[in-house]
Amino acid sequence: MVSKLEELYQEFSKSLAELNDQAEILNLKAAFLGKKGKVSEVLKSLKDATPEERKEIGPKANEIKDNILKNVNDKLAKIEVDQINAKLEKNKIDTSVFEDDYVNDFRHGGLHPRTLIQQEIEDVFLSMGFEVLDGPHIETEFYNFEALNIPADHPARDMQDTFWFTHPQSEEENKHLLRTHTSTIQVRGMLERKPPFRFIAPGTVFRCERTDASHEMVFNQLEGMMVGEDISIGHLIYFMKTLLKEIFKKDVTVRLRPGFFPFVEPGFELDISCLICNGKGCSVCKHTGWVELLPCGMVHPNVLKAGNIDPEKYNGFAFGLGLDRLVMMKYGIDDIRHLNSGDLRFNEQFNKY
Ligand code: PHE
Description:
Elements: H1 2-18, H2 22-33, H3 38-44, H4 51-90, H5 113-127, E1 131-132, E2 138-140, H6 141-144, E3 176-178, H7 184-192, E4 197-206, E5 218-228, H8 233-248, E6 254-258, E7 264-273, E8 290-299, H9 301-306, E9 315-322, H10 323-331, H11 344-347
Parallel strand pairs: 1-4
Antiparallel strand pairs: 2-3, 4-5, 5-9, 6-7, 7-8, 8-9
Helix pairs in contact: 1-4, 2-4, 5-8, 5-10
Phenylalanine is lined by residues 181, 183, 261, 264, 267, 295-297, 318-320.
């Protein structure tokens, strides 16, 4: 009987080796271990065996049963793993494909050079404790002019050609406008906080002007303001120098000259030597060799008052960086109109992939 059992095990092993289907394997298991299975049938004749024979056959039968079970389970597990692997293989994502040549057929999206520089400036100022503020494009006269010490009849209103909204049916005719500068956010910033504070505010501004290589109707500035006790021109110069050093990563020649803006006193124009022509003169610097980049000054007491701040106790500085001009200087772009062109070939040059 022992040899019969061994024969059966051989037969089972041979059959199992040929099967790869889970259902068929389960049938094979039943054919050997089931109630009427081959092994069970052999064991039924155990009742006719002598006690000695039983002693020998019992453990052998158990061993063979265990082996059959183990082999069946191992094989089923292996089939399952093979199936999963086959599925994974079929649905595989080939991440190496982007190293392939054919990636060149794709057009990349990327950040606009102005965004790249804006992020850099924001990082510099955030690290110096400044907040970054935002404000609306559509403004009222109050924020764009009045609160900035430019009353209705002030000639300075003509310095910035303004896009006005008309409300034919309303009393408010001509009171709304597209902001001509980000200085509107000086006012909003002051009204929303108590000194001391410091913030910057990047944003798009609008002027009804003729366009040329260095002028656009829609362009971008980055405003800055710091208010506290005993703020001096020294602070202003320190922050402006730090800004330029971080952006250009090299020394640039600057000059400070008096500038008039109703909202600062004293006011300055900080110019940099034109980096397009190295100061020799070109269309961007209007052949002067200098580019107006950073108008700035000490905040006028009337402006502090409009922002609910006591000018006897506090003072501060403000600046209005020409963001697009800075981008042009940094990257050597010779026409501001490229910046709003929306041409992907232009944008792609500034992003490294
Ligand atoms: N708002 C001014 C402009 O657009 C620039 C400026 C800002 C000047 C802050 C001084 C201080 O011309």
